[in-house]
Amino acid sequence: MMDLTYILPCRIESEDRLKNVITSVSYLLKNFPEAKVIVKEVDTHSTFKFRALPEIKKIASIDNLNHIFEENSDNLFHKTRILNDLILMSDTKVVCSHDVDVIYPIKSHLMAYQSIFNDNVDVVYPYGCGVWQYQVDYPLEVYNQFIQSGHDLNVIADRCRTESSTIGWTQFYNREKVINGGLWNEEFISWGAEDCEFYYRFNALGFRVGRIDAPIWHFEHSRSHNSHYHNPKFMENHQLWQKLRNTPKAELIFYYKNVPYLQERMKNVSV
Fold first, then answer.
1. How far apart are CA 152 and CA 144, in angstroms?
2. Which of 26, 33, 137, 210 is within CB 3.0–4.6 Å of 124 for a Cys-Cys bond?
3. How far apart are CA 190 and CA 240, in angstroms?
């Protein structure tokens, strides 16, 4: 999996978020040492550098880890912008956007990577649609046991409850195709509907979107406005999503040719 970059937008807002970041990033570095991993942290100060990274070093090699810190006091976490920064920074054929609070089986990573690398699909979701999510109750003692076990999923088996899974969390894609399809829509700010719009758009525009029927483990965490309906941009995001999902294909193409963020991005794009 040498032609793969994992990209992870990051803001560590709580102690449970810290545990989750350490878990997700160390899992990737340990199990996929040939892949590149880029974590972009956007915050007023770097929690990742001083608290997460020392713990990750104890678990896995960080030779292929690139941590980027952007000092930013904006209270709203602009995830779509950060994802686009990282996609354009990547230099591999395959890119995987990856939240910092999930893990899923090694086999799912390999299958998703191969499906993109071999040009079978343009975008693939490495987990099933339905009830494939294991939501993990993850207190400190369970975190310690899980890390010490080398990410043995049996350790957290009795800490899980099944929940629905549709879109979000993580996607593998062909870098060139996702750029041609408009990247992530930066009109969506903070949490809410950006994942829905991405999935809908790449289907509506005729890209090949695949899925792997396999589970995903989602570690519980407290929620600030950046991951909750209390997000002050939530209604604007939802209204934009409703507008775009009801837009005919020809008008959708016109919208993406003229949307300001993409026009600016495309001035310096290399594919």
1. 12
2. 210
3. 13
